[in-house]
Design a protein that fits this description.
This protein has 19 helices and 23 strands. The strands form four sheets. The protein has a seven-stranded mixed sheet, with helices on both faces. It is elongated, with a radius of gyration of 31 Å.
Length: 540
């Protein structure tokens, strides 16, 4: 019976490593070079260019140099929607090219790839101990000698009360068997293994068991704005021309701005594929740019650049600025005819993420170095009530420390170098994988994708994992506490005790494996390379 129980336990436990094994099997075995030669993946070097046909895996991390397609990265990032890629875009090895032909230049190979680093971090996390595991170890260090003492007392008690020696030894052995703390030993590490593995499938890389425990204790989330709540780059979002052709003004302005290197100018210039020729370009610092585009004397910039600004144009510019956007005036001669609205666009999933944080009873604060008007406009658009704006990088860490002084357990989410001090200061630092290496290094938990909902998934997964651990520990102890007295009084014989011990361990294993069905707040993944059972609807 003990062997049967151990066999069932080992068979179920093997499933807990499915996530890491599935990750290991994701990588491509070969790469096809531009010349058509197919080489083993181990022979691929940085700088080499390889091709990816529709339906094939991308051999290694790289940069697209030719072609357009959509890449299914769900098995690495947890993102259900394929991402459009074009020349200049980064791609992750082991993701799938859904359509289109790509030429990719390798930027990272072998152990340097994103997949290899994820596997390494997951393996470290699965081998780490959470604080609750140390508590279980301390309890076991007392429980084991206590169980042995109770077995000895059972033996002596039965002999003293006149029972036969074989009966006395049977009762004592039953106590030892029923008290065996196998389930107690499995309760924590197995849940952490399954939880971190499921996190990896969802694009959540957790650096250790202690991080899991810190995650579930968080009660406050502090969000950086640029690159976290927003896309992190300026783009033209609207053209307003009360009394002129918007298409004509747009093209004239973009053609002129193509000569400038200012970030706002770059955003405007990128919105037109075929700019017109420009003569007499002049950059006027602090005001804008002027130049001749065809027969037009075009000006693009601030109000002070123009002699005449109509009330309609002024009203359109003021309305855009009230929403936290940048208003750039455009006109011909000295008259402003329209407004180019430039903004750092809010990510489409940020509002859903803030809603998810609310469902987890987390207080949300937007912390940014941007001006108050822009910050408050972004906060309103996603449902954040508390905003702290105009904060320098060092002050961000001080704000996090102030929240901690109020007794809060703070999770900080950021993506840039300026977020690193705050990420390190927070009880839980969460960095977006789309951010800088400094931010990722300073954090405790990395979201492979840029979807902010993954942060809510991470906290929900941590809470589910620790609820599972507590359930495992409770039933392991309850089983021992209830069964030892029965064994001492001869109600349980060793054979029944061994069967009960196997069932106890099997219960802990199967309870931990339920974590594989965790889904979270994002849409369910499509069929992908990582096998995944039906997901639960509730995130916690």
């Amino acid at each position: 019976l003990v062997l049967l129980g151990k066999w069932l336990e080992a068979r179920a436990t093997r499933r807990s490593g499915d996530a890491i094994r599935a990750l290991a099997e994701l990588g491509a075995g070969t790469a096809r070079l531009e010349s058509g030669e197919e080489i083993p993946i181990d022979a691929l070097e940085v700088g080499m260019r390889f091709t990816v046909r529709p339906g094939e895996k991308i051999a290694t991390d790289g940069r697209v140099v030719d072609g357009h397609s959509a890449v299914d990265a769900s098995m690495v990032t947890g993102e259900p929607v394929p991402v459009e890629v074009a020349p200049g875009d980064e791609v992750i090895g082991a993701t799938i090219n859904t359509h289109g032909f790509l030429v990719v230049e390798a930027t990272r190979v072998g152990a340097e790839t994103a997949l290899a680093q994820i596997m390494d971090l997951v393996s470290q996390a699965q081998g780490s101990k959470a604080p609750v595991q140390r508590l279980a170890d301390r309890v076991a260090s007392v429980f084991v000698p206590t169980a042995i003492t109770l077995a000895a007392l059972t033996l002596v008690g039965w002999l003293v009360t006149g029972h036969a020696a074989d009966e006395a030894f049977t009762a004592a052995v039953a106590v030892l068997v029923i008290a065996c703390p196998c389930a107690l030993g499995l309760a924590t590490p197995l849940a952490i293994m399954v939880g971190t593995g499921r996190g990896a499938q969802l694009g959540i890389v957790i650096k250790g068991g202690e991080v899991l425990e810190d995650s579930r204790r968080a009660d406050t989330v502090v969000l950086d704005k640029t690159g976290t709540v927003t896309e992190g780059h300026m783009e033209l979002v609207d053209v307003l021309a009360p009394s002129a052709s918007t298409a004509e003004l747009h093209r004239l302005a973009a053609s002129l701005e193509a000569r400038s290197e200012h970030p706002i100018a770059v955003a405007i210039a990128a919105s037109v594929a075929d700019p017109l020729a420009v003569d007499g370009f002049e950059n006027r610092p602090g005001l804008g740019v002027v130049g001749h585009v065809g027969a037009n004397d075009v000006r693009v910039g601030r109000r002070a650049l123009f002699e005449q600004v109509s009330p309609e144009v002024e009203s359109a510019a003021s309305a855009a600025e009230a929403e936290g956007r940048t208003a750039v005036l455009v006109g011909r001669g000295g008259s402003a005819e329209g407004v180019l609205v430039v903004a750092d666009r809010v990510k489409p999933t940020s509002a859903e993420a803030v809603t998810a944080f609310g469902q987890l009873d987390l207080d949300v604060t937007l912390l940014t170095g941007d001006n108050a008007t822009t910050a408050e406009a972004v906060a309103r658009s996603v449902g954040i009530e508390r905003v702290i704006a105009g904060v320098l990088p060092g002050a961000k860490a001080a704000e996090v420390a102030r929240l901690q002084d109020e007794g809060r357990i703070v999770a900080m989410v950021g993506d840039g170098i300026n977020d690193a001090p705050a990420l390190a200061q927070a009880d839980l630092g969460i960095s977006l994988g789309t951010g800088t290496d400094v931010a990722i290094e300073a954090s405790d938990l990395t979201l492979v994708s840029g979807d902010l909902r993954a942060a809510a998934d991470a906290i929900a997964l941590s809470r589910r994992t620790f609820a599972t651990i507590k359930g495992n520990l409770f039933w392991a102890f309850a089983y021992n506490v209830a069964a030892i007295p029965l064994a001492m009084f001869g109600v349980l014989n060793p054979m029944i005790a061994s069967a009960a011990m196997g069932v106890s361990s099997l219960f802990v294993v199967t309870n931990s494996l339920r974590l594989r069905r965790f889904r979270g707040f994002r849409a369910p993944e499509p069929a992908a390379a990582v096998p995944s059972p039906a997901m639960e609807r509730s995130p916690s």
